Every structure is written in structure tokens, then in C-alpha cells.
Amino acid sequence: MKALVTGGGGFLGGAIVRELLRDGYQVRSFSRGSYASLEDLGVEVLQADLVDVERVREACCDFDIVFHVAAKTGIWGRYSDYYEVNVKGTENVISACRQEGVNRLVYTSSPSVIFDGGDMEGVDERTPYPKHYTAAYPRTKAIAEQLVVKANDKTLATVALRPHLVWGPGDNHLIPGIVARAQAGKLRKIGRVPKCVDLTYIDDAAMAHLAAAKRLFPESSISGKTFFISQGSPIPLWNFIDRVLEIAELPKITGTVSPLTAYIAGWICEGVYRAFPLRGEPPITRFLAQELASAHWFDISAAKRELGYQPKTSMEEGLRYLREWIHSEK
User: Fold this and answer.
1) Residues forming a β-bridge with 296
2) Are the C-beta atoms of residues 229 and 327 closer than 8 Å to each other?
3) Is 2 helix (H, G, I), strand (E, B) or coil?
4) For residues 30 and 21, what is the distance between their CA atoms, to the nearest angstrom?
5) What is the dihedral of CA 107, 282, 291, 84, to 10 degrees?
6) Environment class of residue 218 by beta-carbon count within 10 Å: exposed (0-12), middle (13-18) or buried (19+)?
7) Using CA atoms in the order 179, 185, 187, 189, what is the torsion angle rounded to 10 degrees?
8) Contact assessment for residue 2 and residue 25, using Cβ atoms and an 8 Å cutoff
């Protein structure tokens, strides 16, 4: 069996690649960078961009299934940049699958596609897309997810997974972001009421993708559907952040601001960064303020029932593995 993984050099993409290899797949990675570590594992590495139509088609040639993981992430940036990668890139992947006879496409989406700025507690896949987004990332991921779902037919089976806050050893986004903001003194608790969130340990996120792949085929029961993925044990957000900071040997965050103050600060920062413009990301945005101030945890019973997904790593186990990894990197 041959599998293509877009974004195979990334955190989640790399974990999916390793799971595929353990399952006996022949794997090809499609990423903008070159990754000797993947080549050492016997992975064929293609270095190209998702906006390159011909290279995407070349990558899909003679393969059985595509895991489309690559995306432009972040809380800030030009909408056109996000649209080019997340929407146009996904269109290119779908088109290449059809042209090259690939009949299965597993898409990595995000719960942020249905985030309306407020609390999401125990919501399931029936939750509609919001009418308005405060950031380019969730908006373009929502468009891309809808393209993938709509593409499902008798010749191409598609499924979209929504893993929430993927973390663990090797993380190059969530954990480093928390640590960097704390070190720079830019991290504040938003609101005084504890808000619970779902997280997804990296190995569980990867296994969910393989579980979906094994049940996906044209006109299967999961074709054309979306599924929330998490560890299924929501915890207060700041409890998790405090544990991460403890592992990183940093003090807990004690400063608190109100949700309204944080939102206004985000609005002001966005205006300043657009007006000048400034490099990097603003210290706070409206989207980030809303994320940090709200509950977001999900009903994953559909994934358990239809994909056979069962998270295996507890929070304590994951934190132990994270501690071992962080200390080994010092």
C-alpha cells in the first residue's frame, strides 16, 4: 500500500508518516522543506509547494491514499497567503487525486472551523460553521474542509478529521508558543472562571488518521463526514499551561485580564500591525483572546463509534513524555 503525506516533515505529518511505516505502507512525503530524517526512514521526500499544480499531481501519481496534513497555521498574516495554501492547495490535492486515480483522501482539519468566539462545551459534528471569523486560519480551513467534504463521491472517498490542540514530544508550535510567550512576559490569564479545553496527544492524533484510512473507501459509512478528535478528557486550560511551564522550569502565570480587555487589546494590536506593517505576530489578537477566554471541548463519540478511535495516552503519561523530551533537548 502506498501513502502520500502532505506536510510529512511537520509535527503531525511526521507522526502519521511513522505510523504508516510501522503499518507496512510505502510512504512519500510532500513538503516545502527537505527532511533527511525522513529519508533515513526510507521515505521518499518530494520538496515542493502545494500551489504548484504539476508537482502536486506528480506527488499523487501511482499512490493509493493521500493524507493532506500540510497547511498554513498561525494567528496572524495576510488572508491571501492563507487562502493560497489552505484553499488553493487543497483544491490542487483534490484535483490531483481525481486525475491520478487516487480514491481515498484523509484531510486534517481543525475544530476552529466551527469556533464562533464563545464557549463550545460537548458540541458534536452537527455544529454549523459560524457566519464570521476573526482570523484567516479558521476561515480558510473551513473553506478547505467544505471542499473536501463536497468532493466525496463514488470515485473519491474523503473524510475530514478535526484534532484539537495537538501536543507532545517534538511539538514545534503549541508548546514552544506557550513557553516563548511566558519567557517574553506576554502571557496573561484571561478571565477568572476556569475554562475546560480538549487536547490531543500526538500519537493519538496520528492513530486517528490511520483508523480513518482503514475504514475509508468510496461509499463507505464515513465517506464525506467530519470527526472531532481529542483525548476525550477536557481539563482547565490554565492547569495545562501551568504544568507545561513547570516542566519548562518557568513560573506560573499569575497576571489576569478580563476577556473584554483582551479582545480590545487584540483589536488594537491588529490595527497597529496592519497600519505600519510590523513583522511577526501581534502579542495578542482577537482570535487568540477568544480562544484563551473560552471553553472548547467536543463530543468524540462519533469518532469512537465510526472510526474505532480510542485515545490511549493519558494526560499524565503525555506530560511525563513531554518532560523527558524537553530535558533531553537541553
Assistant:
1) 120, 197
2) no
3) strand
4) 16
5) -20
6) middle
7) 130
8) yes
Q: Give the span between the Cα atoms of 181 and 262, in whole angstroms.
A: 15
Contacts of 243 (CB under 8 A, 6+ apart): 319
What type of residue is 274?
A: R
Buried-state track 13-52, b at ≥16 Cβ within 10 A, e below 16: bbbbbbbbbeeebebbbbbeeebeebeeeebebbeeebee
List the chain residues with pLDDT less than 70: 330
Is 35 designated active site? Answer: no
pLDDT at 330: 64
Torsion over CA: 277, 113, 134, 252 (sign): negative
Residue that has been written with the C-alpha cell 478511535 in this structure: 309
Among candidate residues 30, 69, 112, 48, the one with its CA nearest the CA of residue 213 = 69
β-bridge partners, 65 = 3
Task: Write phi, then psi, for 232 (nearest 5 degrees).
Answer: 75, 15
CA distance 241 to 167: 12
Phi, psi at 141, each rounded to 5°: -65, -35
Contact in structure between 256 and 192 (CB atoms under 8 Å): yes
Angle at 313 between CA 308 and CA 317, to 5 degrees: 175
Instruction: Write down the catalytic residue from 25, 35, 133, 137.
Output: 137
> Which residue reads 511577526 in cell numbers?
280
Q: Give me 96's grid cell.
A: 490531483
Looking at residue 116, its amino acid is: D
- Distance CA(103)–CA(32), nearest Å, equals 24
Q: Are strands 44-47 and 235-236 parallel, antiparallel or unpaired?
A: unpaired
Is 45:39 a contact under the CB 8 Å cutoff? yes
Interatomic CA distance for residues 197 and 202, integer angstroms: 16
- pTM for this structure? 0.95
Helix, coil or strand: residue 256: strand
User: In the prediction, which pLDDT does 326 show?
Assistant: 86
* Parallel, antiparallel or unpaired: strands 65-68 and 235-236: unpaired
